[in-house]
Amino acid sequence: MSAKLSILIIEDEKNICDFIAAALMNQDYRVFKSYSGMDGLSQITSRCPDILLLDLGLPDMDGTDIIRKVRKWSAMPIIVISARTLENEKVLALDLGADDYITKPFGTSELLARIRTAVRHLTRINATNSTSHIFRASGLVIDFDRRRITVHEQEVHLTQVEYKIVSMLANNSGKVITYDALISHVWGPYADDNNRILRVNMANIRRKLERNPAQPEYIFTEIGIGYRMVDAET
Ligand code: CA
Known about the structure:
Strand 8 (148-151) and strand 9 (154-156) form a beta hairpin. The strands form 3 sheets. Strands 2-1-3-4-5 form a 5-stranded parallel sheet, with helices on both faces. The chain has 8 helices and 12 strands. The protein is an alpha/beta fold. Helix 6 (160-171) crosses helix 8 (195-209).
């Protein structure tokens, strides 16, 4: 890809918007800025950015409304910028289809790491059909066609439920998957509060996959939000 990747920042705090824009332009991204929801929406349509960085607290509308609108027609990576300590806001944004979130205040290196993950998602969105149905990340290999998992070449045996959880996380590697999204994927949308059962399953999965379950290398906990599988090797 020779054309520059473009990123639209929708953030009403001008100094934060400018800080992000400078950091991204420094890395050779093409950057568009918007300070309000309405203007942001119109720039999404007119500029067709590759990636969206979106503040949730905007003066004229809630950032989650923008996610709802964009997700009706586009799979573009959306990274939510949130100053809010309320976990609920992030969970809502993720469940509506945001890919990731970053909490203010954040530094340049954290921001750039999130952008790089989003760029990999973008490559995956664009690479239709060319995926090999194999997930690889530092010693962990998941062969989806054969439903076979190995860790450093040792085969790992998961239960049906454990496999469902791991494969959903791996299919969305690098992304935070909320507890509710995992639960409804595994047990259906009408499942009751299965948080405890999910935690028990996750403990078993970690015992089987991780060298040290207390310091996971593959599946990370986002406290109060959900789980994230380490990014796939490309
Ligand atoms: Ca704001």
